[in-house]
């Protein structure tokens, strides 16, 4: 009985204390229901977050993993759709994944916010070229050049688009303009040679490839020059040496397919094929075929 009395007293004291502490939490003046609040970021915070996510996305897209970077870019534009650069990052991600329609859609969305940014038109042209739509590329480049008329790369791409369409005069004019803006733009000088050769202006083409080689040691002008010199003087020693140097630098040029991708015309490819038949080049050609990423067709 003594133990039970003590237990009863302890229980009674606990109940009293519980009631006292509970009453401390009851608001004076009546009761009200507890409503939890959820933090909602404002528009500026969402925009800043979108930019930060976009910066991370750009690194992933360029250095991997590209898929995750592209998904982050999608989140970035959702948070900050008016930030043009985020749409360009997303377009780059889609292009790297060969999702060309999605890339084009991103560029067009960016243009809807500001169509007066030249780089958007140039990006659209790049996508069009990858889609094998050179006519669309030409239109986009011309619109971009209205906004940024001294862009040598844009003129170079304009030349390439016209060269694909075999608009040789327009292509040559564009390549010349590119090299006027940037005299060290050897690729544009090289491509002048490609056009001139197809126009049967072999001596002028040779001069352009020699000019390009005064700036660079690249395989393309070496091999093109070799083919042209061999056309004029079959089996000459300089051509043989140039072929060996070119294919040592880049064995992919042994491939007809690769030459075509670099916009070599039919006449230059025929001259190169003729040069490759020289018995003195048999070992060089076989080594290049073994090391090339392409199959010679």
Structural summary, described in words:
This protein is mostly helical and 297 residues long. It has 16 helices and no strands. The termini are far apart. The N terminus is likely disordered.
Oligomer kind:
single chain
Return the CATH architecture of the domain at 184-297: Alpha Horseshoe
Query: Residue-averaged pLDDT, rounded?
Result: 88
Distance between the termini: 108 Å
Residues in helix, %: over 70%
Tell me the structural class: mainly alpha
Radius of gyration: 34 Å
CATH superfamily of the domain at 184-297: Tetratricopeptide repeat domain
Could you tell me the strand content as a percent range?
under 5%
The shape, in one word, is elongated
Number of helices: 16
What series of H and E elements makes up the topology?
HHHHHHHHHHHHHHHH
CATH fold-level label of the domain at 184-297: Serine Threonine Protein Phosphatase 5, Tetratricopeptide repeat
pLDDT < 50 stretches: 1-32
The biggest sheet amounts to: none
| CATH class assignment of the domain at 184-297 | Mainly Alpha
Q: How would you summarize what this structure contains?
A:
By secondary structure, the chain is an all-alpha fold.
Record the SSE blueprint.
Layout: H1 2-24, H2 43-63, H3 66-79, H4 84-96, H5 100-113, H6 118-130, H7 134-147, H8 152-164, H9 168-181, H10 186-198, H11 202-213, H12 219-232, H13 237-249, H14 256-261, H15 266-276, H16 282-291
Helix pairs in contact: 2-3, 2-4, 3-4, 4-5, 5-6, 6-7, 7-8, 8-9, 8-10, 9-10, 10-11, 10-12, 11-12, 12-13, 12-15
């Amino acid at each position: 009985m003594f133990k039970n009395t003590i237990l009863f007293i302890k229980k009674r004291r606990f109940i009293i204390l519980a009631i006292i502490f509970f009453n401390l939490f009851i608001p004076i003046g009546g009761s009200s229901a507890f409503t939890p609040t959820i933090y909602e970021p404002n528009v500026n915070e969402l925009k800043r977050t979108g930019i930060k996510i976009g910066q991370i996305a750009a690194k992933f897209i360029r250095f991997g993993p590209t898929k995750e970077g592209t998904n982050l870019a999608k989140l970035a534009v959702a948070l900050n759709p008016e930030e043009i650069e985020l749409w360009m990052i997303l377009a780059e991600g889609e292009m790297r994944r060969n999702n060309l329609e999605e890339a084009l859609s991103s560029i067009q969305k960016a243009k809807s916010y500001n169509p007066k940014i030249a780089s958007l038109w140039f990006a659209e042209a790049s996508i069009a070229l990858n889609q094998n739509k050179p006519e669309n590329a030409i239109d986009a480049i011309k619109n971009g050049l209205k906004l940024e008329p001294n862009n040598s790369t844009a003129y170079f791409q304009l030349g390439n688009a016209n060269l694909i369409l075999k608009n040789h005069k327009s292509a040559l004019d564009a390549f010349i303009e590119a090299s006027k803006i940037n005299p060290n733009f050897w690729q544009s000088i090289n491509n002048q040679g490609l056009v001139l050769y197809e126009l049967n202006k072999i001596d002028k083409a040779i001069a352009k490839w020699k000019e390009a080689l005064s700036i660079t040691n690249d395989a393309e002008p070496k091999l093109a020059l070799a083919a042209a010199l061999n056309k004029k003087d079959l089996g000459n020693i300089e051509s043989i040496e140039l072929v060996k140097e070119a294919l040592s630098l880049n064995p992919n040029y042994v491939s007809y397919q690769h030459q075509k991708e670099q916009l070599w015309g039919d006449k230059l490819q025929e001259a190169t094929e003729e040069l490759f038949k020289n018995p003195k080049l048999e070992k060089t050609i076989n080594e290049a075929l073994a090391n090339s990423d392409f199959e010679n067709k």
